[in-house]
């Protein structure tokens, strides 16, 4: 019988230690860098970056149906680029400029409107 050499075990151990060092490097945070300040400024977007409907809705914190309603009712909402007959995507730069143009502060529009009359059941007045 041939005796095994320890090279394959040493190679595996070396690979494991390299992976452990990489994992530790990922977890280490620089003490002088505040995490909140690094997250606050998003990476600049390329002018041709596209985002599809569901990820856009998640990013804006609304449902995909709300995006459809905005497309229908809001003339300032960016027009989608149709990738196919059923797949729409928006330019990220257009969405960001639309968001920047939106009014900020004050009361929500619904607070400024008069309340709608309550619907009654049939026969009630």
How would you describe what is shown here?
This protein folds into 2 domains: 7-39; 42-104, Multidrug-efflux Transporter Regulator, Chain: A, Domain 2 (Orthogonal Bundle). The protein is built from 6 helices and 3 strands, in the order H-H-E-H-H-E-E-H-H. It has helices at residues 7-27, 35-40, 53-60, 64-73, 92-101, 109-112; strands spanning 50-52, 81-82, 88-91. A 3-stranded antiparallel sheet has the order 1-3-2. A hairpin with a 5-residue loop joins strand 2 and strand 3 (88-91). The longest helix has 21 residues, at 7-27. The protein is elongated, with a radius of gyration of 27 Å.
Give the low-pLDDT segments: 24-35
Which shape, going by the Cα principal axes? elongated
Structural class given helices, strands, pairing? mainly alpha
Major β-sheet strand ordering: 1-3-2
Mean pLDDT, as a whole number? 74
Question: What percentage of amino acids are in beta strands?
Answer: 5-15%
**Helicity level:** 40-55%
Order of helices and strands: HHEHHEEHH
Distance between the termini: 100 Å
Brief rundown of the structure:
The protein is mainly alpha-helical and 125 residues long. The chain is built from six helices and three strands, in the order ααβααββαα.
